[in-house]
Specification:
single chain; mainly beta; Cathepsin D, subunit A, domain 1; 4-stranded antiparallel β-sheet; 31 strands; Candidapepsin-8; hydrolase
């Protein structure tokens, strides 16, 4: 049966298809009470980058189990890198009390290989990775059993870090070509397929509304209740014939202003290409400087030179404000595919209540704008000639994205925010089509047992007809702060909300925010 519309998959809520691995991800670092975070240092410090990403709920985290018996690990879900790594119980960050004086350096979970009967050392050294903020993680390579979403991957290769600048592990979901190992190996996506735990090297990401604290991921499947309209298929871009990241053709940004006029900025205005990298490990989104200059001059924004960042009025946080019609529509593939981001998804309430805008600021109640300039990477000396677009969580929350590594494409749909139901289709590989076959139809199987032959490419599917649910606020997590050496993260002890608009605790200092959010994506990692 050909997959042409979601209506043929009227599945019961919560029913899972065969060979689909599903689990929830949580925004912000579990196991840490944000109320203990100190004021930032001077502008330009790499500490500022990591700390703000940490504090603002940057990134989405999964709780997994590693080893036998299982040890619980917290890992950042990162579509911008390809290696999985965890903190060793002997990591310098976790052994040295002095290093743990900063909240972004308090170890959340650590792994002790001597307590796992299935652990195997591959190379006691050999792993090193450098991030955009200058932080370096290094250690060795190992194999062990990893359980995620109730599914166990046997003998997964991953790194254990003994020298670190961040307090949790990372679950890299990218292409093996970007692995930091001298010899490429089957990473988590490869092993899920190799061990017949999923039937296609693909996964779907749903980060949900900014005002909620959790999203979900599906390995090997698509949830048609999580997006609106047809799934738009966009081919990935290769570098010298090799696919290294989730990079797609970004063609234009159309801004709908509160007065109903529109501002269109095409990438053709630039003197260089600006492909977009989809990176869940990055909190903000970054556009080429010329586009940001045009954008911010049309909006009531303000660049604070002390912070080194563009700010916007916090009144935009509310979807019921008079300016709520402001939106940003990103167009891809020569404008044949698009995602609309409402303004309240582009506003982050993360500044300290004591922050006082300079006299030149057009507003008194300041929030961080979710789009910044890539020029920041050039001025900090981390990237030369930043000819790219980086779409992080401020964009991805409005999109439902299917990352298909096997067929080098992504499927993208407008997110159905706050969806409370599921209609899940298993992605099932079939024979590859001939090169001269232009049929891009795919196939799969839903939880009721329906199936289709999947040729090369994602299936033609349609989500819900319109936004199905309304926003119901959820309180942010309150966790126990763990400061002892080698301590695993404590369980959540309660929940409460804080900050304007439901954002996670605003305790950032008024100075020192250059290179604001640490970019964790692998596209910016040095060799």
């Amino acid at each position: 049966m050909q997959l042409v519309a979601a209506s043929v998959f009227a599945l019961a809520s919560g029913v899972l298809a065969q060979n689909v691995v599903q689990f929830n991800v949580t925004r912000g670092v579990p196991g840490v009470h944000l109320g203990s975070i100190p004021v930032l240092g001077k502008r330009g410090t790499t500490h500022s980058e990591r700390l703000i990403n940490f504090m603002a709920g940057g990134g989405y985290y999964a709780r997994v189990s590693l080893g036998t018996p299982p040890q619980v690990m917290t890992m950042l879900l990162d579509t911008g890198s390809s290696d999985a790594w965890v903190l060793s119980h002997k990591a310098d960050l976790c052994m040295d009390d002095d290093l743990q004086q900063s909240a972004d350096k308090i170890c959340v979970d650590t792994f002790n290989p001597s307590k796992s009967s299935t652990h195997k050392v591959i190379d006691p050294r050999g792993f090193q990775i450098k991030y955009l903020d200058g932080g370096i993680a290094s250690g060795g390579w190992m194999q062990d059993d990893l359980t995620i979403g109730g599914t166990t991957i046997k003998s997964l290769q991953l790194a254990y870090v003994t020298k670190a600048k961040r307090n949790t592990g990372i679950l890299g979901l990218g292409f093996a070509a970007s692995e930091k190992a001298a010899t490429k190996y089957p990473n988590i996506i490869d092993q899920l397929a190799n061990q017949n735990l999923i039937s296609s090297k693909a996964f779907s990401l749903y980060l949900n509304d900014r005002r909620t604290d959790a999203g979900s991921i599906l390995f090997g499947g698509i949830d048609t209740d999580k997006f609106i309209g047809p799934l738009q298929i966009i081919p990935l871009l290769a570098t010298n014939g090799t696919y290294t990241s989730f990079e797609i053709d970004f063609s234009s940004l159309v801004v709908t202003l509160p007065n109903s006029t529109t501002l269109t900025m095409e990438t053709s205005m630039l003197d260089h290409p600006a492909p977009a990298v989809l990176d869940s490990g990055t909190t903000l989104s970054y556009l080429p400087d010329d586009m940001v200059d045009t954008l911010t001059s049309a909006l009531a924004t303000y660049f604070d030179p002390d912070l080194g960042m563009t700010l916007i009025d916090c009144s935009y946080l509310s979807s019921s404000s008079s300016s709520s019609s402001l939106s940003f529509t990103f167009h891809f593939l020569n404008s044949t595919a698009s995602i609309r981001v409402p303004v309240w998804e582009m506003v982050l309430d993360v500044l300290s209540p004591s922050y006082i805008p300079p006299p030149a600021s057009p507003f008194q109640n300041a929030c961080l704008f979710g789009i910044q300039s890539t020029e920041i990477f050039e001025t900090t000396g981390t990237v030369k000639q930043p000819n790219f677009t980086l779409l992080g969580d401020t964009f991805l929350r409005s999109a439902y994205v299917v990352f298909d590594l096997g067929n080098h494409e992504v499927g993208m749909g407008q997110a159905n925010l706050n969806s409370s139901a599921s209609r899940i289709i298993e992605l099932k590989e079939g024979p590859k089509k001939d090169d001269d076959d232009d049929d891009n139809n795919g196939g799969g199987k839903n939880a009721a047992g329906d199936s289709a032959t999947k040729t090369r490419g994602l299936p033609v599917v349609t989500g819900v007809l319109a936004q199905q649910t309304t926003f119901t606020p959820t309180a942010g997590p309150v966790m126990t702060l763990v400061t002892t050496k080698n301590a695993a993260a404590a369980a959540a002890v309660g929940r409460s909300g804080s900050g304007r608009g439901g954002e996670m605790l605003g305790v950032l200092g008024v100075v020192g925010l250059a290179s604001f959010f640490a970019v964790l994506g692998g596209v910016f990692m040095a060799l």
